[in-house]
Amino acid sequence: xxxxxxxxxxxxxxxxxxxxxxxxxxxxxxxxxxxxxxxxxxxxxxxxxxxxxxxxxxxxxxxxxxxxxxxxxxxxxxxxxxxxxxxxxxxxxxxxxxxxxxxxxxxxxxxxxxxxxxxxxxxxxxxxxxxxxxxxxxxxxxxxxxxxxxxxxxxxxxxxxxxxxxxxxxxxxxxxxxxxxxxxxxxxxxxxxxxxxxxxxxxxxxxxxxxxxxxxxxxxxxxxxxxxxxxxxxxxxxxxxxxxxxxxxxxxxxxxxxxxxxxxxxxxxxxxxxxxxxxxxxxxxxxxxxxxxxxxxxxxxxxxxxxxxxxxxxxxxxxxxxxxxxxxxxxxxxxxxxxxxxxxxxxxxxxxxxxxxx
Length: 358
Known about the structure:
Elements (H helix, E strand, L loop, with lengths): L13 H26 L13 H21 L5 H30 L11 H9 L18 H18 L4 H14 L19 H16 L6 H17 L7 H18 L1 H4 L5 H8 L1 H19 L2 H4 L4 H42 L3
Helix pairs in contact: 1-2, 1-11, 1-12, 1-14, 2-7, 2-9, 3-5, 3-12, 3-14, 5-6, 6-7, 7-9, 8-9, 12-14
């Protein structure tokens, strides 16, 4: 087996952080357009749907980050629970806060909720990020954007199992994820809370892992022009391709893979030139992603105000949606998410320091 090149792998990829910010804004734009469609009583499908591809970029990035995280924490079976604990600490606290906020608002002001909370099981499953049926019939948690986190946690759980069993993830993950993706071609009972057409999305995690293994094994191509061309073509595909006859993994997943790969190749040339605001939005992307759903009613209320009602348009809805979501998400990141992450980081360092004296 070729020797893994770990010395040349940076601790942080600024290009990836920039892409996280772009992906978050894409999702906000998509839901802002959905809000406009509802306001003018037009089917949402008649608008630009490619903003959903921000999720595909997120999944490729998640797949890329995990092997690098494991490389820094160790490969022994004893590290499996440590890995899972860190993932839980990263995902659940903020998600629980946002979910509790949604529950509280729904109970306090039922009129603002399009749907109720559903059954007790749905509430519990939502908190645990287990797939369950929303009152509208979809397979989404109480906070709808959280459906992607269900896939994220499934991905993390597989990695945990692979580490605990002492299996090489380069063989274990494809052996599990490929069959899961193929389930989309087999009939599944409608009572099982699984959307078959979404199952191939797990291949995007695998695509990101392939990029990470490539970074670890050898230096990436550093010529800017070829990678810039690949990035432009891949992003153009994400923005404009929307052939519903093809799998989402083909239409958006492959371009997302090429885009993230090209961005990684340009890290040394482009990373330090990325604007600080773009990096901040990338850092706050998780908070933006979770909170932007709450901003849509705010945007609707703002546009109904006397002075804004006269200029209300598709463009104004998108601008207000992005602006309010980015501001709210960034504030949440600075005042809530980052302090939570710092708390767990300090606690881990304290535990490691104390262990040295045992």
